[in-house]
Amino acid sequence: MSSDAVKKRKPKVIRSEGGTPEAKRGRGESDQLSAVSSHVKFRKVRLRQVKVKIPAGPHLIGQRKLFTAKTQEVRVYNEEVELEGRDPQHDYMLYKDTCAALAKLMAEIQELKAGGVKDGSVEIEERRRQSSVHFITLKKLNRLAHMRLKKGRDQTHEAKQRVDVLHLQLQNLLYEVMHLQKEIGKCLEFKSQHEEIELVSEEEFFQEAPAEISRPHVTRDDQHQLTLARLDWELEQRKRLAEQYKTSLTSKEKIQKAIEQKREYLSSLQPGLQNIMQASVPVQEYLKMPFEHMQKQAEVARHLPPPLYVLLVQAGAYGQACDKHLSVSISGDVDEAKALSRPPEDSQDDESDSDAEEEQQNTKRRRATVGAQLDDKRKEMLRRHPLSLCVDLKCKDGSVLHLFFYYLMNLNILTVKTKVSTSTDLSGAVSAGELLNQESLLNCLYASDHGKETPNPSNRYQFDKVGITTFSDYVSDLGHPYVWVQKLGGLQFSSDGAQSGLRGSALSASHMERTIKLLRGRLQARLSLHKQFSSLEHSIIPVSSECQHLFPAKVISGLTRWTMMSHQEFTELGFVQHVLKAGLVHETDLFFMAVVERGTARVSAAVVLNPRYPDVAPLFSLSLLWKGERSGRSDDNLRAVESEVNVFRSELQGPRPGLQLLTNQIQRLCVCLDVYLETESQVCDGSEGPKEFPREKMCLRTARGPSRLKPFKYNHPQGFFSHR
Amino acid sequence: MNSRKMGPVELLHMSVFSQSFSPCGRFLAAGNNYGEIAVFSLSAALSPDASEGSQKPILNFTAHDGPVFSLLSTDTHLLSAGNGEISAWSWAELIKKNTKAAWTRKPNYETSLEIPEINAMIINPKDNSLTVGGGDNNIHIMDMETGIFKSVLKGHTDYIHCLCFKEREGEILSGGEDGAVRIWDSRTNRPVHCIEVFKYEECARPQFGKWISCLATDSDWMLCGGGPSLSLWHLRSMSPTSVFPLPGCQREAVFYQDLIMSVGEGPNVSHCLHGGTVKAQIPCSPSSLNTLALNLKNTEHRVMTVGGSSHQIDVFTNFSYRAFSLSF
């Protein structure tokens, strides 16, 4: 509690003390003396004086008033002194006695009055005087009580003030203590900079530092001195290291200068060495050690785009390891490639800038130039990398399959073009034209890989921008983007199914061997077909000695025609509809028409040749023109012939890889036609039937089973025909 | 014997030769030219929520080396005939996809150069014997109890196409490549009659030939056809009563209520009336048909199925149009 508050309150207390005792007293008197109380109250001070100086009489009041002002202090002082000498307990007893005497007097007066004594009689007067004296006594006692109260109050107040002062002093002291504690804390928390410096450990310090720095006699016991000494030692050491650093720098400069000199010397050697290299070229050629060539290729290879580089490395590696007849070379404009590869980012920026400019221009004169600009954009999008790879696959017979791999930079796909060069002239066969056509040579190397559409799914959106509807329009220009080509170049697109997580070289390597084998197989198949076709066109069915056992010695039916057909022509034939319906015909297949004749009978065979021949057997559909037209649909026996030709490829394919399959199938068709015709005349009733086809084949039975099939199966050593 | 993988070319050249419904009528077995038997679930294929998959066989296995020309169901077993051998497969085991033959029997053939095929099998319920006919021109009768071939009926001069049983008289009818329909007494194993159909001008078709490839009987009536036209015969008078003007050679014909159904060359099922008129020709998917079967045992799955020169078997729920095809 602040001292201010205490001060403010004090007067209040005093005031209330002045008020309440009066009220209390008034109440106490009214109980006993209701008649005189109001009178006494009003003349409190005066009565005090009256009592001391003059024992009684209200008539003297005016006179006494005059000297009260002069004598009051002295009297009050006397009374106070008197107060000190009196015993409160005694006063209390006096009060009690007085009250009792007063009550007794009152009762006597009452009695007298009741006894008929008149007012103012002696007895009554006497008693009234006595009562007055008692009243005065009571008044005196009252005053004394008041004074005691006041005195007590003053004493309390004094004591309280003393307590307040002491309390204030205590507060000040506490505050001071707190402040000092804080200061101590601050001092304790002080951090010196030296603490961040990493010093050597004490043991090390005493071991290494000289005595004048370490001063062990002082520092052993004094931690502060020890730290100072250690800091001194640290400074000393640092100074030494700085010096060492300076010397190292100078030596380094010296060495650098020496290196420079030596380098100059070496570079001065290069022209001389080059001269020697130049001179050694003829020797290299003579010794067939093409170091120079390989070096040059490696130099050029640095400018290849990544997919072609992967292809180069993997094809080269495969060629070295497994296939001596495979060679890889780089062709194209190296300077252009260099220009392309050096500032790749700049050129792209330029491109986009120019694109933006173009677009601005576009908005200005959109109509006039939109076509031309789209053309330019298309050309830009379909641009090839200036370098290309040429992989040459040599076959044993001397023919070579040239594969030209190109990289379309903006589409991020590889394309391939092919060329076949043969050792012999192959212009003979007309129907073989498609066989070595670069458009279709590599179709479906892997099943359903047509190489018409781009395998990179994001190209679709690029095309949309420049209005290219399909990539197949550009295939003849740019080459075929077969999926296997992408894989050889290590490109993998999500649409491939992405079964393997392989990328880059690993992907290329995983496909290299199989693809090269397929390529060789394809070339061999096509070349052998080419040869077979030229003899087929001359109506000769070449049957090799390994396959002689499949057919009887005498076959009368013969091939008369072998021509090529378009897909369109094929689909228009009536007797192939079931094959079309079964989904066995694709646009990429090659279609041929073979005509086999014997006498008046004539079989037309529509042949579907899958590009993956001989892995996929050619499919024959037959139509026989003899005594009306019959086809495999209407004649169960003709259907059986078809099945005999188509289904049993394992019998007919001959030595691996089955390159004689087609010719053997044609030969079997001829044999089956013989059987068909020879047994046909017999089945009815031999006597009446026309003897155009005399029975020459040996058959156990001419018909069998519910569909009365003829015996088309030739049994080799015995030479008879039986049923399956 | 597991099925080998059928390529698309093999499927293209597949022919279905024989069919038989299981005794419960819920399954159909079909045999093809590669010696395979496929079991189809009719209840699955006919159910309202049938899918593409339910038209595929639930079981497909190679039963014989040669084509399966004949299939027959007894109360418990499926009998299949291949090249000169008869195998039995328990239906219960087949449904569990267990393809182990219960037994295999070979009739005693005289020839050895080429194993004769078996073209027809019938059960004689009177003495529980199996009658088979095929490539060796003879009819062999096997006792089903013992598995012993107890007798041989000789008479045909060329191979036997079809067999048929005339229950009331206990007679076996056989039709063959030689153009004769022979009637045998099953108790005495002696020939009773021989009808050379091609000699009757009404039905002869010399441009085709004389063979009889289908036979069916119904009390006193007999249906036969093949090279000659399909004709209805009255057996007591041994004369043809009506000849059906169907263009191709018929391979299977059955009596069904007041109709005669017949299949053969040509892609349709012919419905004929006894009077000799062709009521309808219902188109099917195979280009020619070998076999027709009616499932009358199970009223729930009452269907007609036909198979021929295709890997598909057409199913008719209503006999006047093709509902869908089962496929090998």
Question: Notable features of this structure?
Answer:
heterodimer; A: 724 residues; alpha+beta; five-stranded antiparallel sheet; 10% strand; elongated; B: mainly beta; globular; mRNA binding (chain A); THO_Thoc5 (chain A); THO complex subunit 5 homolog (chain A); nucleus (chain A)
General description of the model:
- By secondary structure, chain A is of the alpha+beta class.
- Helix content of chain A is 58%, strand content 10%.
- Chain A has 24 helices and 12 strands.
- Chain A has helices spanning 3-32, 37-42, 44-53, 61-85, 88-114, 122-189, 202-208, 211-214, 216-219, 223-287, 291-301, 306-321, 334-341, 344-364, 366-381, 459-466, 475-478, 483-488, 504-537, 567-572, 577-581, 636-646, 649-652, 661-683; strands spanning 326-332, 387-394, 400-408, 413-421, 558-565, 590-598, 601-609, 619-625, 629-631, 698-699, 713-714, 720-722.
- In chain A, strands 5-6-7-8-9 form a 5-stranded antiparallel sheet. A 4-stranded antiparallel sheet of chain A has the order 1-2-3-4. In chain A, strands 10-12-11 form a 3-stranded mixed sheet, with no helix packed on it.
- In chain A, helix 5 (88-114) runs antiparallel to helix 6 (122-189) and helix 12 crosses helix 19.
- With 328 residues, chain B is mainly beta.
- Chain B is 5% helix and 47% strand.
- Chain B is built from 3 helices and 28 strands.
- Chain B has helices spanning 8-12, 42-46, 91-95; strands spanning 16-21, 27-32, 36-41, 59-62, 70-73, 77-81, 86-90, 103-105, 118-124, 129-134, 139-143, 149-153, 160-166, 171-176, 180-185, 190-196, 212-218, 221-226, 231-234, 239-243, 250-256, 259-264, 268-273, 278-283, 289-294, 304-308, 312-316, 324-327.
- A 4-stranded antiparallel sheet of chain B has the order 1-2-3-4.
- The radius of gyration of chain B is 19 Å and the shape is globular.
- The chains are: A alpha+beta (724), B mainly beta (328).
- Chains A and B meet through helix 22 of A and helix 1 of B.
